[in-house]
Amino acid sequence: MKYPNNIRKTTSNNIVPVNYKNRGMNLESDINITNEYYIDTMKAFIYKKPTPIKLVKVDYKLAKITEAYFEKPSTTDYNGIYKGQYIDFEAKETTNKTSFPISNIHPHQINHIRNIYNEKGICFLIVRFTNLNETYILMSKDFLEFIDNNDRSSIPLSYFKEKGFLIKDGFIPRIDYLKVLEENGGL
Amino acid sequence: MKYPNNIRKTTSNNIVPVNYKNRGMNLESDINITNEYYIDTMKAFIYKKPTPIKLVKVDYKLAKITEAYFEKPSTTDYNGIYKGQYIDFEAKETTNKTSFPISNIHPHQINHIRNIYNEKGICFLIVRFTNLNETYILMSKDFLEFIDNNDRSSIPLSYFKEKGFLIKDGFIPRIDYLKVLEENGGL
Hints:
2 copies of one chain form a homodimer. The first copy, chain A, has a 6-stranded mixed sheet with strand order 1-4-5-7-8-10, sandwiched between helices. In chain A, strands 2-3 form a two-stranded antiparallel sheet. By secondary structure, chain A is an alpha+beta fold. Chain A contains 6 helices and 10 strands, in the order H-H-E-E-E-E-E-E-H-E-E-H-E-H-E-H. Strand 3 of chain A pairs antiparallel with strand 3 (64-70) of chain B.
């Protein structure tokens, strides 16, 4: 899934007419549709960063890239503004049914999450357990508390149930994470 | 300059060891070095977004992109957080000596700047008049006021002198735009 996924990432930054009712897509698509809904309704302005790509060969005449490679992002995938507040998050899917492998979040990203938390930004993870069809918000404070106090290589589902906020599947928008944050004191 | 510039853009998102004293570079390099200085000193966390690239052909086995094209960004190039505040800006150079052509800022970007201003984010342009070696911050409020009240296709230098904040060339960091904003009430 990695490269098709990345391909969507590079185009998902553009605002295009969207069918908010579109269903049955992956977490990234759900979030992109939700963000476009927030933008169209002027509720918030949160965007997906383009996937960083290392360019090797470019045909300048044709403005065509002929050799390039995907790079690992050093920050999170999404950031923006809501009511003047800085919003920053990473979204991940896992097929695990009992825990979320921390290896899904690169060390650079963990460091970034810590920086944003310390800088008083609103920072969190959105994690979907695809086989359970359950999607949780885990605030940076709780994520960092876990990794700072555990040697475990994964965060158990029970921790998400205890500390996280469950995002119920909506219709419009797909997953109204800002509403969930507001209802749970995450904002 | 466009494509070499874009090539730097795609790599400038990575944090690498930096010689802050490095001199005589273009505005983007100056800003990237300044942002890395802010990050290393934990003052602010402001990053350049990767250049959006449209992927056409990818060799999945090699994870190699064999055909891709540059896309115009729909938002500004830089955003991040400083003391909990959302920071968002675009940086442009012009060789003009008397005015800044508004065509340097795409309509999508102007719309984004308006949205961020309305959402109470700290949004601005950094414009360098390369032949004058003068670099100004123009706050979104003043930028929008000009384009909303003028039919001119360019913003005269005199408007930057009147409404903008001059960024003096520093040593470390290259251009301390956050300090200039603080000193001029831009934050």
